[in-house]
Here is the input.
Amino acid sequence: MGQPTTLHLFADELRRARAAAGMSQDALSHQINYSASLVAKIELSERRPGRDFAQRCDAALDTGGLLSRIHDTLSDTVLPWFREWLAIEREATTLRSYEPLVVPGLLQTEGYARALLDGASRFTEDEIEPQVAARMERQAVLTRDHPPQLVVVLDEYVLRRPVGGPAVMADQLRHLAEVGRRCRVHLHVVPAGVGAYAGLNGAFVVATPPDGDDVAYLDNQLQGQVVDRAADVLSVRQTWESVRAEALSHGQTMDLITEATRTWT
Here is the structure.
């Protein structure tokens, strides 16, 4: 069964079960601890449900596990996992990104992206160039007519790690400085002198879509994870606040990027 058919089947069965239970979208959202806007989008087949969402709806609506079974079929037919996040990223009005290890994809140069994919990914040589091209195309979100506000926090070691060698790093840091001068971009660095802090558990992004309900993205060794359950998003936002509190101001960060660029030239 193709993706649209399965996705619509899930939406139809969710609506039917909710109506049979006499629940509004808002009532169901409170019952399962997800936002009402997410429930609405899933019922319109505009968003793919996660397994946790399906399981919570099964429990709240007493479906006998029907939605989870449909979800498991859906999982075999949907587009690759990152496509869900790309759709969220494209419509976001604000993106708050934290990276302790590497420059975020939205800010990478071609040389840096190529070196990173060559040295730290599972892609074959033939697969790397299409991945680099896709990453560069993705950055168009920052140059559209109404770009999102982008706030990025990096660990200082991102500026010091020799990805691709001195020439690649110098070009990458010059690009960071250039992007950092755009009016809707704010860059912040957590200095190397800061000890253990909340962000060291891993990279993440928090996106604010037009409807105002934040969605998060967590990165890991296997694949990224889109997080939209209210309690989990709140936890990520709290981590963001802790990380941001440790970081330098935008002006101080731009000075540090300039200094770090000199070390690579």
Notes: The first strand starts at residue 94 and ends at 99. DSSP finds twelve helices and six strands in the chain. The radius of gyration is 20 Å.
